[in-house]
Design goal:
The protein is an all-alpha fold. The chain has one domain (about 20-140). The protein is about 55% helix and about 0% strand. The protein has six helices and no strands. The protein has helices at about 20-40, 45-55, 60-75, 95-105, 115-125, 135-140.
C-alpha cells in the first residue's frame, strides 16, 4: 500500500536534488502562486508581492518582475506544459527541480556559462529557452542566492 522511505540511502524519489534553501523555497512558492494566479486570469498575486517585499525590501518588486518575466518566457518557449505543484505542496516536482537547477547554475562562476541555457532547453524541449539565461542570472543576483 505504501513505500517506506526510512532508508536514508534510497530516500524519497523527489529528493534527487538538494533541498531548496530558504531563498529558493520562497522563490518556488512565489512561482507556484504566480502560476495559480495566471491560470485564474489575474496579473499579480498580492501575497507574493507582500512576501517578496518583506524578504527583499526595495528589491522585492524587481524579484517579482523577474519571476513574472521568467514565467512568461517559459510559457512562450516550452513545447510542453511544465508541471508545478500547488503553493502548499510539500513535494519538489521534477520540473521544479529543473527550474531550481537552472537558477543554481545561473550565477556559478566556475560553471560553464551555457549550463543554465542547457538546463532550460532540456526543461522546455526548445533551444530558444536558452535566451532566458541572462534573466535567470539577474534573478539569482537580485535574490542573493
Amino acid at each position: 500500500m505504501f513505500t517506506d522511505f526510512a532508508d536514508p540511502e534510497t530516500g524519497p524519489p523527489w529528493r534527487a536534488e538538494p533541498l531548496p534553501t530558504p531563498g529558493e523555497a520562497l522563490l518556488l512558492w512565489s512561482l507556484r502562486r504566480m502560476v495559480v494566479m495566471i491560470d485564474a486570469g489575474d496579473a499579480r498575486c498580492h501575497w507574493v508581492h507582500v512576501a517578496l517585499q518583506q524578504r527583499y525590501g526595495d528589491d522585492g518588486q524587481g524579484v517579482e518582475h523577474l519571476l513574472r518575466c521568467w514565467l512568461v518566457g517559459l510559457q512562450r518557449t516550452a513545447t510542453r506544459c511544465l508541471v508545478v505543484g500547488e503553493p502548499a505542496c510539500a513535494l519538489l516536482l521534477p520540473d521544479e527541480q529543473m527550474l531550481l537547477r537552472a537558477l543554481r547554475h545561473a550565477g556559478d562562476a566556475g560553471a560553464d556559462s551555457n549550463a543554465t541555457g542547457q538546463v532550460l532547453a532540456t526543461l522546455t524541449g526548445n533551444d530558444q529557452a536558452a535566451a532566458l539565461t541572462p534573466l535567470v542570472a539577474e534573478l539569482r543576483r537580485l535574490a542573493q542566492l
